[in-house]
Amino acid sequence: MDLKLRRDAWQTHPFRFAADLVTKLSKRVAQDCSSSGKSLTAAQYVDAAMSRYLPATIEEQLALAEEFLLSRETDVGTGKQASHRVSPEVYAIAAPLANDLREAGHARIAVHVYSGALDSFLRDLESEGPLGK
Description:
- The chain is mainly alpha-helical.
- The protein is 62% helix and 11% strand.
């Protein structure tokens, strides 16, 4: 609803996620479109995931990245990039994130932070089941 009401306030930001999460996200959006009869987009899910799980501080971001990496059996690699329109609140944290991590000596960790947030969100959705009408 926020995207419709404040459309001009939402900005596009490039996110890089683990490739398997991009596939999982796409499938979940398609399933929820079918089960709810609503026209949904991946950007809405990314914004919701980041709103709920993306920490504002570097310390918390590093903890999320570590938790995500420890939960994986395979290397994430460089991830897969896609740009999504997000709310001003998410953009305020996401836009400086990669550079803030770089300045703190943790370059190339943003993919793990973003993936950790998206993975947590998708796991929560999975436990709730399909989106209803």
